[in-house]
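From the methods appendix. Each design record in this collection lists the tokenized structure first, followed by the designed amino acid sequence. Records were kept in a plain field format so they could be parsed without special tools. The example shown here is representative of the layout used throughout.

RECORD:
FOLD TOKENS (203 positions):
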């Protein structure tokens, strides 16, 4: 199982971090060990003092493929959820300033949270999926799949030009504006529309 992530896929988020809006999907990966397993506590990592949440829609790959044409891409994923791409922002900023890769800031153990799955057949319009994140009951992020720079099909097709996609792989499709810091004791809850998809407490 592979975890693909798309960076800077919402204009407002790219701008809030001072990044250029990309011409094509920005792809990075997390290892399998980054996935927080169900019923496993989430612990604040010891190597950061600035842990940020980034809520994202997540796709589940349902068919093996390579060099997928965009017009066929929808056949390769079957469910959507919302998750968190946790980021050690201080570590990332330090690595970026040195021109170094930033896996240490993004790909550490348990840095990827995924909620329960909704079959795509139950989604009325995949180009109009509302999702949000609440911290301690207050809304901190909200987004809509229609505001993505690169939509689901374009992302899947682009990834498949470089990597095979396999059944069970996950794609984090990018975070909207509103990313921010979280601390021990915070409760984070992700939603698609009004349906709660996950709830975790930072320990």
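DESIGN:
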């Amino acid at each position: 199982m592979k975890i693909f992530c798309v960076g800077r896929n919402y204009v407002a988020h790219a701008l809030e971090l001072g990044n250029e809006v990309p011409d094509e999907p920005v792809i990075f990966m997390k290892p399998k060990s980054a996935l927080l397993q169900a019923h496993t506590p989430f612990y604040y990592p010891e190597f950061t003092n600035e842990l940020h949440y980034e809520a994202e829609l997540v796709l589940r790959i349902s068919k093996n493929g390579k060099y997928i044409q965009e017009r066929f891409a929808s056949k390769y994923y079957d469910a959507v959820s919302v998750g968190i791409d946790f980021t050690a922002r201080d570590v990332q900023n330090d690595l970026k300033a040195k021109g170094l890769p930033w896996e240490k800031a993004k790909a550490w153990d348990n840095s990827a949270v995924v909620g329960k799955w909704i079959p795509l057949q139950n989604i009325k319009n995949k180009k109009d999926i509302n999702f949000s994140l609440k911290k301690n009951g207050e809304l901190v992020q909200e987004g809509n799949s229609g505001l993505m720079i690169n939509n689901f099909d374009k992302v899947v097709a682009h990834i498949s030009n470089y990597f095979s996609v396999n059944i069970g792989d996950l794609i984090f499709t990018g975070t909207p504006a509103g990313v921010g810091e979280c601390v021990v004791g915070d409760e984070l809850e992700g939603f698609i529309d009004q349906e709660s998809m996950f709830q975790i407490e930072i320990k």
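APPENDIX NOTE: Residues 3-201 form a domain with the Fumarylacetoacetate hydrolase; domain 2 fold (CATH 3.90.850.10).
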